[in-house]
Design goal:
about 550 residues, mainly alpha, two-stranded antiparallel ribbon, two-stranded antiparallel sheet
Length: about 550
């Protein structure tokens, strides 16, 4: 390694460190294994073998799903059960490690290291930064599960535990709260916050911090393999790195496809509720195709002209909808629920995060294990995107803002939307939101409030725009990985991945497994990538230790 105290050239498209930073000296040059050329007017600059292996494997997988749909459906169902049931302890235990690791970074001297060098300044304001964090991190999920998850956990908790043959068959978290509406609401909110709070954002923070540190401070390409240089050395530029980056492409693509599938089903349900649009595969395919087309336009406009603008629009609309529901709904109840839910979350956190000896196997495997695999599969995409927009922040500032602030926003969102539905059941006897399917619960909750048609339409718009920002930024990330870390590769490549994501989502949605097929692929790609994240924690520690040594000289 070489200590640098002034700007020096680094990887193509990556800003040089400003001030003190310890650049890793390597003979590897970004793009040295790339294949450049053009097909007609469309240029390409792809990194082999990552692009070819990931692209051809995904095409083969899609072809298999289309040609043998029944067999594929059986394989998907087996995959989902095998991984969630056999490795639930691994997902839950690993997620706990990521949270503890991030909290340690906040309180240790490593937190004073600045991403981009000691003199680097932030590229974006706090408002622009938070907007992109919020939109990229879990936008569609908040819309889909904001009402449905608190209501699902409330209903299952209220029903209590059910056992057959000595094993529980209910879906209640922990021991449930049979017949006690207040206790069931409290446990339901705690379980929801557990899935949307510190744990998922810690997963994102680990990947984002690793990418930002080794690109902006160490001068390596902005790709997943770079984070493992302290462990594997220059071997990361060979097959070790190819495997890591290829797994990242798989995880990102299938994680995005799952979210697009959820978004399409919810938008379809909302359009049916408002305008009578038929519910079914045809409508969902049209929705995915149309939104992918919009995402293409955003892709062509780039990060600042596309994702940033759409993210800020979405944050504004989401805030307005949140404020409306809070003000016209049971305001005092919701504010008390927000505070009470945080208390319940910390009360039940040790039991909910316990990786072994669980009796609530349906909840821990079907909800928690799937969620952690889903967040982990999203982590290359969200992590790289967060890294792209977080240069200039200190590690402490970065972790606090990425871990704590989005978690509080998610708690507030779930408390307001889920809490309104809970109040309708407990105090008003209105059960339509409770009884509706997952994708309809939001709209049934809004039906009981003033201006339901307008707010439901805003909800659909939010789903669509979240859909677009996820597809756009996901395409940006996959393109960066398959271009060997280049962040300024030809735009047609990004367009290719944008179209590819939509196509995979459509094929899996139409397959015999439907959404279960999407969920199965998330689980299967999330498992090996969990190992990669655990190794990332080791690499981050090594990288921050070297940066800290420079600062204390």
């Amino acid at each position: 390694m070489d200590d640098r105290t002034e700007n020096s050239g680094t990887a193509e498209g990556i800003p040089s460190p400003e001030g003190d930073a310890q650049i890793i000296q390597t003979d590897y040059e970004i793009g040295q294994n790339n294949v450049e050329g053009a097909v007609g007017p469309f240029g390409f600059d792809i990194h082999n073998p990552v692009f070819m292996i990931s692209g051809l494997t995904i095409i083969a997988f899609v072809f298999y799903t289309l040609v043998l749909p029944e067999q594929a459906g059986g394989v998907f169902a087996w995959l989902f059960g095998a991984v969630t049931q056999g490795f639930d302890w691994f997902f839950i235990g690993s997620a706990n490690i990521f949270v503890l690791f991030c909290l340690v970074l906040i309180v240790t001297p490593w937190g004073s290291v600045r991403l981009g060098g000691s003199d680097a300044t932030p590229d974006y304001s706090y408002i622009g930064w938070f907007a992109m964090l919020f939109a990229a991190g879990m936008g569609i999920g908040l819309m889909f599960y904001g009402v449905s998850e608190p209501m699902s956990h409330f209903s299952s908790s209220l029903g209590g535990t059910v056992a057959e043959g000595g094993a529980r068959t209910d879906w209640a978290p922990l021991g449930g709260a049979a017949g006690d509406e207040v206790a069931a609401a409290r446990l339901g909110m705690a379980a929801t916050i557990f899935h949307w709070g510190l744990h998922p954002w810690a997963i994102y923070a680990v990947v984002a911090l690793a990418l930002a540190l080794f690109s902006y401070n160490k001068g390596l390409p902005l790709t997943i393999r770079s984070a493992f240089h302290p462990i594997f050395g220059d071997a990361v530029w060979g097959w070790v790195g190819h495997v890591i980056d290829t797994l990242a492409v798989f995880a990102t693509l299938f994680g995005l496809a799952t979210s697009l599938g959820f978004g399409a089903t919810q938008a379809n349900a909302g359009l049916n509720e408002l305008f009578g649009v038929p519910i079914g595969a045809t409508t969902e395919v049209i929705l995915i195709s149309g939104i992918t087309a919009i995402a293409l336009i955003s892709v062509m406009r780039g990060l600042d002209g596309g994702v940033k603008i759409l993210s800020e629009i979405n944050m504004g609309l989401a805030f307005l909808l949140l404020a409306f529901v809070l003000l016209v709904g049971p305001t005092i109840y919701l504010l008390k629920l927000f505070v009470g839910s945080l208390g319940a979350y910390f009360e039940f956190l040790p039991a909910l995060s316990k990786p072994f000896g669980r009796e609530d196997v349906n909840f821990s495997q079907g909800w928690t294990s799937f969620y952690w695999a889903w967040w982990i599969s999203w982590s290359p995409f969200v992590g790289m995107f967060i890294a792209r927009v977080s240069r200039g922040r200190t590690v402490r500032e970065f972790v606090i803002c990425v871990l704590l602030i989005p978690s509080l926003v998610c708690v507030l969102w779930m408390s307001v939307f889920g809490g309104t539905a809970l109040y309708q059941v407990i105090n008003d006897g209105y059960t339509l939101a409770q009884d509706a399917s997952l994708e309809l619960k939001l709209f049934k909750m809004l039906d009981a409030l003033p201006l339901a048609s307008i707010t439901s339409l805003v909800g659909i718009i939010l789903v669509v725009v979240f859909f677009v920002t996820s597809s756009d930024s996901g395409s940006l990330v996959i393109d960066t990985i398959t271009a060997g870390g280049k962040i300024d590769a030809p735009v047609p490549q990004r367009a290719f991945w944008c179209i590819f994501e939509g196509a995979v989502a459509i094929v899996l949605l139409l397959s015999a497994g439907g959404l279960k097929a999407l969920q199965s692929m998330v689980i299967s790609t999330g498992l090996p990538f969990t190992v990669i994240l655990l190794l990332m924690c080791v690499a981050i520690g090594k990288g921050l230790a070297s940066e800290r040594r420079i600062m204390t000289r």
